[in-house]
Amino acid sequence: MWLGDPDRPTLINVVFWVVLLATVGDHMLRPAKTLYSVLFAINIAVVVGLWLVLPWRPAPRYRFIPLLFLPATIALGLTGSYGTHLLLTLIGTASIAFVYGMRTAVAVLAGMLAFIVAGTLLFDRTMQEALLQAGVVGVFAIFVLGMTSAILEARLRRAEAQALLERVRELAVAEERARMGAEMHDSIGHHLTVIKVGLENAERYRERRPDAAWQEVRQAKEVTAEALADARRWVRALRPLALDGRVGSAALEQLAVSFDGTGLSVTFEVEGRERPLDPDVELVLYRVLQEGLTNALRHSEARQVHGRLTFGEDRVTLVINDDGKGRKTGGRDGAGGFGLPSLAERTRALRGVLTAGDAEGGGFELRAELPAGTGAGPPIGAGLRPGAEVR
């Protein structure tokens, strides 16, 4: 509402101060009585004071201010202005459009034009002169209200875009939960089913075949350990982007460290000068590293994984290499699932590219390249490259 009001259009703000200075300068260059000069100065102070608190959005607490600002600008014509104040009056009409709507602003404008015609005739001017002056003001009014309408339309579209963005993020979260739910069902659900069947067999064998019963118990115990390890992996996967206040490479390094004790030897390095990234880019990088580490642990029989985050001039690249089985050397060939395809879609939405496949020196490589700044250029890829393996 005050000096730093973000809703006040910059162009209108500039025009106001330019016209105000022109009005004051025009008054000072013309001879005037002392009384009129004092009234004019008071009038200018009132206009400036109202301008500083003039609302530019529907605000129930301050809706009356445009209704005071408009007559204050009109009064400048009575206290010493010679026509330049009319542009300030049009700006007041624009404020009414922002607060009350375009229909109210058009009605106020029509009344103001009628007032100009009537006032001109009162000063013994001809109807032609009155209509000419009203026509000039009307042309400027059309321009001001057109600009106001464009700003209001842009605000509406921006609000719709923000709402759509929030909806997209909600759907992305829902998709991620669905993916993780399916993965958990396939992994932990399978383990629990095996445990249940083994314990049922142990109960059935406990009297007639006690050795077989104890064998079933031992197998159930082993499967329970596998299920527990799987559950711990999912707990790691559910950790948020900011870990104890960490973002950027610090969050990725912490994620790599969290896989200690799983049998993987994970190393991580950063190349180039690190700088802040867009939050959405950080989240995708985090998910890519998460997917690469989890897949290496679950499918590739890898013992070592290396992550490298490289900051380029306008791109940031994350590469995860493991020394496990690639597709051509015994890894899961053509395995389904939608972890990597989902990440590819999210990467492409940020105008980046995700590739996955066998590394040249053996093992598997997952690579994500994304814009390094908050802006985004044209798409540089279309998701997973042909022949990429989804594990």
UniProtKB/TrEMBL annotation:
Reaction(s) catalysed by this chain's protein: ATP + protein L-histidine = ADP + protein N-phospho-L-histidine
Domain Signal transduction histidine kinase subgroup 3 dimerisation and phosphoacceptor: 176-242
Record keyword Plastid present: no
Alphabetical list of SUPFAM superfamilies matching this protein: ATPase domain of HSP90 chaperone/DNA topoisomerase II/histidine kinase
TM spans (from-to): 35-54, 66-99, 105-123, 130-152
Any single GO CC term annotated in Swiss-Prot or TrEMBL for this entry: membrane
EC number: 2.7.13.3
Coiled coil: 151-178
UniProt-recorded name of the protein: histidine kinase
Organism taxonomic ancestry: Bacteria, Bacillati, Actinomycetota, Actinomycetes, Streptosporangiales
